[in-house]
Amino acid sequence: MAHNRHRFQRTSCACRDPELPFARRRRLFGRDVVKTQHGGADLLEDIRINQTATYHGPPQVMTGLRPVNFIFGTNGSGKTTISRVIADPAAHPSCEVAWKKDRPLLTLVYNSDFTTRNYGARLRGVFTLGDTSAKAIAEVETARKAVEDLQGEITTLAGVLGRDDTVGRRAERAMLRTRFETECWEIKAEHDAHFAGAFEGIRTSKAKFCDRVLVEAARSTTPLYSVDELKTRATVVFGDIAAPMTSLITPDENGLLELETDPILAKKVVGKEDIDVAGLIKRLGNSDWVRQGLAYAQSEAPCPFCQKPLDDALHSQLTEFFDEAYDADIAAIARVEAAYQDRSTRLLASAQTALDTPCTYVDRNALAALVDRLAAHIALNLRHLERKRKEPSTPVALDPIAEAYTAVRAAVDTANVQIARHNALIANIKTERATLTNEIWRRLIEDRKASILAYSTAKGRHDAAIESMGKALEGKQDKLSQAMSVLAALEKGVTSVKPTVTAINATLTSFGFTSFKLNTAGDKEEFYEIVRGDGTDARDTLSEGERCFVTFLYFYHLVQGATTASGVTTDRIVVIDDPVSSLDSDVLFIVSALIKRLLAEATDGKGRIKQVFVLTHNIYFHKEVTFDTKRSQRDALKSETFWTVRKVGDLSTLQRHETNPIRTGYELLWEEVRDPSRSLLTIQNVLRRILEHYFTILGGVDRDDIVGKFQGKDQMICGSLFSWINDGSHNFADDLYVAADSATVDRYLAVFKAIFYRSEHGAHYRMMMKLPPDTAEQDAHHASEQTEAVELMAEAGLPAADGHEPDMPPAPAL
């Protein structure tokens, strides 16, 4: 029907901001709000849903949660995901839940997973306090009270002890340290310009600077100097000083000078002299030429010297001329040349390295000239050696390089001496700086001795108190463990599963579910099974509605107890997700009533149930379960929150509301009546639809009886407003659109009001129009100003009904 439509009232919510850190949102909307609104109860404060199911957009955060939380959303919008995150946060690593005081409670969740998991061959029995003696019950209560008292003491002591970032002694100690760091930083700010060198490594950190102050205060025993004297010395000692330098590589001739006097260089290397051709070769002095040509002499080939056939005897004599002694001298020449080449190369390389090394104590131009001079001598000698190799019979004398080498070596040695002096000076500067640094700290500590002593004394008191409270906390935690063991043992002695099965069966019978019931089962009768009257298994033959109702009743009693013999008195939170999806209106009512009991216990805060979440897509169930006479209009109570979950495309989002966001079409019709800027064209049809819904669809009414209460024109107007009732039409297509001016509309509104008053339903009119209760004086005032219809009502003295009627009213008793 048209009046069954609903709408969401959307409000802005800071908790939707994905850029706001979750921990900060907890502080802004969780701990502080809950603490002031419902005391110290342990609650689930914040829920962050991210990257799971249809929540793959920006993180959705439910924050500032209260004892009662209503969540409305259509099927498939993402409600069950919320219940699953609460039930098992560990299974959703991208999601988070935050508990007040970081103390999680037992979480009981009713959703499709619960139904699937528990509707099996057997249900685990629900233990509750059975029909035991008052003494045994009192013992359980005493033990439970002892556990609660210890938990409270632990919570209080933990609060007094605190953490570094919260209230408590630890926080006081942290604040003391923060203040002292600020005082120490003032030292740095005052003296940094002159003593920056003494503060090296700690100039950018308050914490490190403070630590250094405390260390120096404990060990400083150096002489005490004035600040002015220390500033003067600091100007010199902490001035710009070059870094240590690496010594230059000293060039080494490595035996190169010895090669200059090798005898082979001065020796005329010639062949054997007792050969016939030796005299000729000696007289001509061309042994080197003959040796070179002999390499081309081959048997049966022209002579390389005269181009005539080569005589074998001559070839033999030439070969014998260059004997083994000759070859040995040639090899000696080659060795000298190779050694000179190698050693001179290394010498020049080391000299070049010294030249290339940056050093302020080296005259690079002068050293370069010396190295070039040495290189020139070496190059000349290499040419001499090459000539000796090619002309062994010619004596050669190498150019001495000793002077050039010594000059290069002296320049490098002089630079190294200066480098050594430089490094020694730097080493002394480090010592001076260390000494001056200690003396500076001694002065600064002396000047702040009083504040340092005050901090150390106060910190010592905090340390002692924190240590003492820590030991006390450990002791109470041990006592709590023992007390919980005692409570568990007592609960096992007085709990039973039978009261639960009796209560469930009684509820089933009272609502007409007589074809099945629960029986206890198992060796110890700690399970339930669903059976027919004859004892046969009924589990597979129940209807969807029956199965839904029995599993909800099982869950409801589970909330009151536990599936083990102990734990019945444990604090808990309850999550209920769509419990009425397959139930008729009668069962919906009892489910709503049972849930309201849970809501009342959570709101009261004195029972085991500390918090309840109700998720649904059913408008009527939502209206029923959220109805509360204490609520001002539709504004949320301090103990409750309202949320809607919407899915657009494949993306779910959460929205918090400061009022109940779900409104029926009937309410929207009344809202149009209340609106001063209402449409003159459609208002008459709005009035007709309200009267049709209230007087006919919900209860039936005699049209003539109502119309007969009016006279004249007002009777005609009343008849037109009830025109649909006789027509039996309930479609929008049958709406009557009659042009009317504002005066006519006012007349219709007056008759509309009179209809409710004359039928003794004025209270409903006042409620829907959001008017205060009428008094006799107000009624008289209204009568004097309203139209003739209202005047006739006042003259007739028709009483106004009292009492409260729900937004979706029951059928009137006419």
TrEMBL record:
Q: Any idea where the Protein CR006 P-loop domain is?
A: 54-756
Q: What is the top-level taxon of the source organism? A: Bacteria
InterPro entries in UniProt = CR006_AAA, P-loop_NTPase
Q: Name one Pfam family in it.
A: AAA_13
Q: Give the protein's recorded name.
A: Protein CR006 P-loop domain-containing protein
**What organism is the protein native to?**
Brevundimonas diminuta
Output the lineage of the source organism.
Answer: Bacteria, Pseudomonadati, Pseudomonadota, Alphaproteobacteria, Caulobacterales
